[in-house]
Specification:
The complex is a heterodimer of chains A (about 230) and B (about 500). With about 230 residues, chain A is an alpha/beta fold. Helix content of chain A is about 40%, strand content about 20%. Chain A starts with a strand and ends with a strand. The chains are: A alpha/beta (about 230), B alpha+beta (about 500).
């Protein structure tokens, strides 16, 4: 059975393009042009993934994301232009899974959809206890981190940060989410903690901290632990 | 108040001094007379007193001089005319002589005073003329309203004893008076501005005041008003001087206003010209890739069946790369406009290592031969920056280096206590002479390689550097060029964890 995608996009050309290129890949594509239409469609039947464009005519995508999240674990992919950083982060904080920056190529879109589906959902996802990617292995249960076969000692805070990223491996975790989960909700604007601790983590885990292969920066948004 | 007390004190002091002078002259004449007595006749003695009266009339005000003249006659009578040491006169002849002497003394004192007054008037008008000249000179050099105001105030205070106040009209029609100014001062100034005429003694309006209110204007453009206290009605020359000072100040203000509006008009026209160049360049740079896209797309649409597969793929690749170019151009244009219009950045503590990492992750896709060699030292200080903008800046620099050189590219970060430097060195053919500044101008492009640039990249980079209170410079080296971004580092770094 083919997967169903709900594309929420107000531009007709891009809607048509997405419909055809996703259709070719075997997705069943539904489209909506506004937040209200998307809400109505979601009420009737649930797709397997939502592609949500920012800057829709009738307002706040974050509300829609929050409403979906409160009931369903289906993956939500946000599509934004480069200058919509703040809004994008708001949607990610509200529970969206990942984002794509316009303009994007179809190959990039398909790759993101694949990754998002693989790590589908936040609420129904089974608790991840292990992460393995290239030379890095993290075992949350035994609190062991191994790089290239060598165990690495992490401080408790470094490990909490690593663990939080590993739980959402492959997905972007916003600054706010990281700060709230690792340090506590009252520290959500202490972004310098993140800069300092990510620097320390990279120094211990990455071969070249200035060109990380695991702990990736999503500029202005958050961090992502690279996953296969 | 204190100054009116002071002027009353001055008056008393002057009267006291006049009395001393008169006393000295008259007693001197009497002593000389007593010494000469017996050797010379009465007429010679009378002449000594006349001489004293002449001096007195030149040195003393009119009334004091007249009193001195009468006293001189009385003294002559008392000391020398028999019967001596009385005010009685025996001989009829002496009575005539005394009256003649009195008349002469009075006439001389009158003439002397008049002469003295004229001399004084001439001197003071010369002083005032010199003052006006100096004021005109200083006003010509002043380029600020406050400066003109201070000059006018200073020159009025120098010319008049009473307190003087100069106030300028603000654009909203209010005077720039401090809150402690006397309300009548404000009213008087506003009235003289409204009527565009001097008010106060000697002007025919508000003649009973002891204050002049003089408008500061030029050709109907009212700049403000001056208020001069403790003045007297007959001082016409003083009034004229005050008006001349105010006229000069008014003229200077008007000149300043004209210069400002001319400057604004010039700015406006320069802005329009820049805007036109910008639009022309944007439309040119937009049209070129659009033409390629349309050509390739229409060719694919109509001739696809006839085209070999390789050619079809080439056209697709062309459409994609031209569209990418357009996207970059649009993004840069928007970014430039945004940076110019709002000084507000979304700044937060950022790690340069992280920014470099994020940029390399994106640029490596276009750096097939891994030509970029990065050198980022550990434990760099954090900087307050907008990460998205810095990422864009660095990506632009690296893309340029990849495009304009074929060899390795070095990316180095160094930091001192105050600044962090990020340098991108390439080993390309370098920037031609005379192009060092032009490359940072929007829509200028060095034609050194025949490659098409984004046209705006470096202009955006420099705007981003400046928005961060930093600089972006190009330095030429023996081989290739370096682009160096310098950013300030805050001395107070954030604390890693709460204590």
């Amino acid at each position: 059975m083919s997967l169903r995608v709900l594309v929420v996009e107000d531009d007709r050309e891009i809607r048509a393009l997405l419909r055809s290129s996703l259709g070719v890949e075997g997705f069943l594509v539904q489209t909506a042009v506004s937040v209200s239409e998307a809400s109505a469609m979601l009420f009737h039947s649930l797709p397997d993934i939502v592609l949500l464009d920012l800057g829709l005519p009738d307002g706040d995508g974050a509300d829609l994301v929050r409403r979906i999240r409160s009931q369903h674990g289906l993956p939500i992919l946000v599509v934004s232009a480069r200058h919509q950083e703040v809004e994008k982060v708001k949607l990610l904080d509200a529970g969206a899974d990942d984002y794509l920056t316009k303009p994007f190529g179809v190959d990039e879109l398909l790759a993101r959809i694949r990754v998002t589906l693989r790590h589908r959902g936040t609420t129904h996802a089974p608790a991840r206890t292990c992460h393995q990617h290239e030379d890095l292995a993290v075992d949350l249960g035994s609190r062991r981190v191994v790089v290239g076969g060598e165990p690495v000692h992490l401080t408790p805070t470094e490990f909490k940060l690593m663990a939080r990223l590993a739980q959402s491996a492959g997905k972007v975790v916003t600054h706010r989410q990281l700060l709230a989960d690792v340090w506590g909700p009252e520290f959500t604007d202490h972004t310098h903690y993140l800069r300092l601790y990510m620097g320390q983590l990279r120094a211990k885990i990455e071969k070249d901290p200035a060109e990380p292969r695991h702990l990736l920066t999503e500029t202005g948004v958050g961090y992502r632990l690279a996953a296969a | 108040m204190s100054s009116s007390l002071r002027s009353r004190g001055n008056l008393q002091w002057r009267q006291f001094r006049d009395a001393l002078v008169a006393l000295a002259l008259l007693s001197g004449a009497t002593l000389v007379g007593l010494a000469l007595q017996g050797h010379v006749g009465l007429i010679s003695l009378a002449m000594v007193y006349v001489l004293a009266v002449v001096f007195a009339s030149y040195a003393l005000p009119r009334m004091a001089a007249a009193i001195s003249a009468v006293t001189a006659v009385a003294l002559l009578n008392f000391f020398f005319i028999p019967p001596r040491f009385t005010l009685q006169v025996d001989a009829q002849e002496s009575v005539v002589a005394l009256f003649a002497m009195l008349s002469v003394a009075l006439v001389v004192s009158h003439l002397g005073t008049a002469l003295r007054q004229e001399t004084e008037a001439a001197r003071s008008s010369e002083r005032r003329a010199i003052a006006l000249q100096a004021l005109a000179g200083e006003l010509a050099e002043s380029s600020q309203q406050a400066q003109i105001q201070a000059l006018a105030q200073q020159f009025l205070a120098r010319a008049f004893p009473g307190p003087c106040l100069v106030s300028l009209l603000a654009p909203d029609g209010e005077l720039d008076l401090t809150a402690d100014a006397i309300p009548t001062t404000r009213d008087g100034m506003l009235a003289c501005i409204r009527e565009a005429a001097t008010l106060g003694p000697g002007t025919g309006r508000w003649a009973r005041l002891d204050t002049w209110y003089v408008p500061i204007e030029s050709e109907g453009h009212m700049g403000g008003a001056a208020c001069i206290r403790n003045v007297s009605a007959p001082d016409h020359a003083g009034l004229e001087h005050a008006q001349a000072v105010c006229a000069l100040a008014g003229h200077a203000l008007w000149r300043l206003e004209l210069a400002e509006s001319m400057h604004a008009a010039e700015e406006q026209s320069r802005w329009h010209k820049a805007q036109n160049t910008f639009l022309a360049a944007v439309s040119h740079d937009l049209r070129t890739p659009l033409a390629s896209i349309m050509g390739a797309a229409s060719s694919l649409q109509t001739q696809r069946d006839k085209l070999p597969l390789m050619e079809q793929e080439r056209l697709c690749a062309l459409i994609l790369s031209e569209a990418n170019h357009l996207a970059t151009l649009a993004e840069n244009t928007l970014q430039l406009v945004r940076l110019e219009n709002s000084g507000d950045l979304d700044r937060d503590w950022q790690s340069m290592e992280e920014i470099v990492g994020a940029v390399l992750a994106r640029v490596r896709a276009r750096d097939v031969g891994r030509r970029i060699r990065s050198n980022v030292p550990p434990r760099l200080p954090l900087i307050k920056a907008d990460p998205v903008l810095l990422t864009q800046l660095l990506e632009n620099l690296l893309d340029n280096a990849l495009k304009y050189s074929a060899d390795a590219i070095d990316l180095m970060v160094t930091s001192t206590v105050d600044v962090m430097e990020l340098a991108v060195h390439d080993f390309g053919i370098g920037i031609p002479d005379g192009e060092e500044l032009a490359i940072f101008e929007p829509y200028r492009r060095s034609d050194r390689s025949g490659q098409r640039g984004a046209g705006l990249g470096l202009a955006v980079c420099r705007a981003i550097a400046r928005a961060h209170n930093g600089t972006l410079e190009m330095r030429r080296r023996d081989r290739g060029s370096s682009f160096i971004l310098t950013l300030p580092v805050a001395r107070v770094q954030p604390i890693p964890e709460p204590a």
